[in-house]
Amino acid sequence: MKKLYILTSISGIGIFVLLFAFYFQTEKFTLDESTIRILGTSTLRDWETVSRDAEGEAELGIRNGNIHAINALTIRVPAESLKSGNRNMDRHTYDALNAEAHPHIIFFFKDVEQIAAVNGTMRINAIGDLTVAGVTKAITLTATGSITKSLVTFEGNHFLKMTDFNIEPPTALLGTVKADDEISIQFLVSFKPASEAL
Questions:
Q1: Segments of the chain scoring below 50 in pLDDT
Q2: How far, CA to CA in Å, does 183 sit from each of 42, 49, 77, 149, 169?
Q3: What does the alpha-carbon distance between residue 84 and residue 119 come to, in Å, rounded to a whole number?
């Protein structure tokens, strides 16, 4: 009887472990589409530069059509993929980013503070390291997450100061035109299952 009780207990634990693993299973994703937009202002006018060539991968937990876990996520933006429509401005941007020595802007996910459903979408607060021009700073990103068919999309906006990354706000015309230190990074990134990329 005692042996039967032990076997029953072990079987029960095994079933629980299997159910737990199934319930919290994650899947690998690769970045499929992206729009990274950097916006700022200056004493002369507003400006923006855009990249649609980001690369990345993620490991996400999806359950009942919702994102319930983020185990890993990395996004790499080639610095010289940023385009403003003005070659002179692009050149100054690449110089400011020291693109030759540091060819990528990188966000590396570290932890999640919150994943909550709000009005039919997922609100996510994620902690990670942002590396710009070779300088790495810890940041907290707020994003909305949604799932359409097999695509998982994150969208958000983050403000930062160039000087936090040792970037001197660019000037022109003998210093009479100067960019404001604060910029906004808007991001829209969609991941697809890595199995679909094969």
A1: 4, 6-7, 10-23
A2: 10, 11, 17, 33, 10
A3: 35
Element (H, E) at 71: strand 66-78
Rounded Cα distance between 40 and 157, Å, is 13
Rounded Cα–Cα distance for residues 128 and 140 (Å): 6
Q: What is the pLDDT of residue 6?
A: 47
Helical segments of the chain, H only: 2-23, 87-96
Question: Concatenated DSSP letters for 99-150?
Answer: TTT--EEEEEEEEEEEEEEETTEEEEEEEEEEEETTEEEEEEEEEEEEEETT
Residues 178 and 53: their CA atoms lie apart, in Å, by 28
Burial class (CB in 10 A: 0-12, 13-18, 19+), 187: buried
Superfamily of domain 26-197: Lipid/polyisoprenoid-binding, YceI-like (2.40.128.110)
Cβ-based neighbours of 117, under 8 Å, separated by 6 or more: 66, 123
